[in-house]
Amino acid sequence: MTRFVIRLLINSLALWLTTLIVAGVSVRSYADDTLATVVTYLLVGLIFGVVNAIIGNTIRILAFPLYILTLGLIALVVNGLLLLLVAWISDLIGFGLEVDGFWWGVLGAIVLGLLSWLIGVLVRPILGRRQR
Fold this sequence. Notes:
mainly alpha; 2 strands; 6% strand; Phage_holin_4_2; membrane; transmembrane helix; Phage holin family protein
């Protein structure tokens, strides 16, 4: 459970940083105060984690030959489409992630993946000390 919460926080922080870096990716909060914005980022991070875990892994398994054929470059397209899917799901709720187009989704997915990885690398030594 702790690992799930940590991944959720890492994804939400990476998503927030992505919206600051990439102009075509933004998050629309359900209210104007700070707490509502934080909850919105956490909800979008949760949606992103669930979509990536279920649909993303299924696509990666089924399209494994395509990944080999394209030397992994298809992952950029798949991650961009998954980010667009998260935007569509959060739009159904009425607030959340907004992506301006496919290429903004691809760029946002690249930045989001890099930031999530970097934050995970930075957090890992801190968590390793607490578990001992």
